[in-house]
Amino acid sequence: MKVLVIGQGGREHALVWKLTQSDSVSQVFCAPGNAGTQSEATNVAIRVSDIPKMVAFAKEESIRLAVIGPEVPLVAGMADAMREAGIAVFGPSKAAAELEGSKSFAKQMMWKANVPTAKSETFSNFEAAEAYLEEREEQPLVIKADGLAAGKGVLICDTKQEALDGIKSLMKIKEFGDAGKTVIIEEKLIGQEVSILAIVSGSTIIPLETSQDHKAAYDGDKGPNTGGMGAYSPAPLVTDALMDEIIEKILVPMVNVMKIEDRPFNGVLYAGLMITNQGPKVLEFNVRFGDPEAQPVLMRLKTDLAQLLLAAAEERLDEMESLEWDERPAVCVVMASEGYPGDYEKGRVIRGLGEAAELADTKVFHAGTTSKDGEVVTDGGRVLGVTAIGDSISDAKLKAYQAVKCIRWDGAWCRKDISDKAR
Known about the structure:
Elements: E1 2-7, H1 10-19, E2 27-32, E3 42-43, H2 51-60, E4 65-68, H3 71-76, H4 78-84, E5 88-90, H5 94-101, H6 103-113, E6 120-123, H7 126-135, E7 141-145, E8 154-157, H8 160-172, E9 183-187, E10 192-201, E11 204-207, E12 212-213, E13 216-218, E14 222-225, E15 230-233, H9 240-260, E16 266-276, E17 279-286, H10 294-300, H11 305-313, E18 330-336, H12 353-357, E19 362-366, E20 369-372, E21 375-378, E22 382-389, H13 393-406
Parallel strand pairs: 1-2, 1-4, 2-3, 4-5
Antiparallel strand pairs: 6-9, 7-8, 7-9, 10-11, 10-16, 12-15, 13-14, 15-18, 16-17, 18-22, 19-22, 20-21
Family: Belongs to the GARS family.
Catalytic activity: 5-phospho-beta-D-ribosylamine + glycine + ATP = N(1)-(5-phospho-beta-D-ribosyl)glycinamide + ADP + phosphate + H(+)
Pfam family, one: GARS_C
């Protein structure tokens, strides 16, 4: 069958790489793709925002399965358009994707489902938000832009002044545009974060192996939030008993409440959790594979991904047998452009990719790259997801950073402590 992967980041390269390994897949297209997907699939120059053109291409090429990677086209309704055109698509409807498109909507659904999450208030008026903060006693808070902000619209505020500055940057200065028209002010949860991704179709929920993202820009979880500076899988913090609790108290209630609300979920339900002293609490829901979590998780997956996603798309996920996994852990280190998560330059030539590709148990997934004059150049803030699998977390980390050392471009940088929390 022919498969179309929609998107151009590291997650999409990982999906392309895994899908091409399926015996049932004859050809993989990636729209628009990047320099990495270009070497493993056929890139198609269609913007992820161009839904009519994407659907027309899928029909012309007789695509059997469309896999939508990023959140933006999902929130815009691309999955609905594909389904209306008779194309099997892996990804939630526009109505279900609002779980990620609006953090205030997600909070409403969590309250209805009695899912544990941080106490919060929602504001669409700056003066009202300001007055609320002024009246509160000094305590750490988290300010979130309600809409999509590429994973960066979350501000951790340890003081009242930081919180006041935060709502000003989101609602007045509009640092993230319309995403910050409405803000959520919530208590800061203390603990360790984990990412729980599950394939969902109808009432069937198949959790994937656990992972842990590193959102802060710098070592020791310092600096501003990013789209993710690295991840590892599995997360030892999540025991079998804890996973059972997460499924029972979080995943099942959310899938049920979405069905009750006439927004049935089909795709990846991603729960970003904080493991607190009171148990797991939801920080956010996403409606697609995480990036960079997808890279180490998919590296460990042995089950045929194409058949798994097709079964979900065709609402026969309950027919799937248990997933098979490589027991070895995997670590992904994101290499970023100088200036990220702020402003950065594009077009810098990347060297050493061939040298890194020769290393065993290692895969360099491209995120913000493109080809120019026969060379691979930077084309984004997060440029590469250097991923390795090893006999232990420390072994996988060592292999990943050995590959990182092979690769260079002007202004390249990365965190040095990815996966250290697992020890």
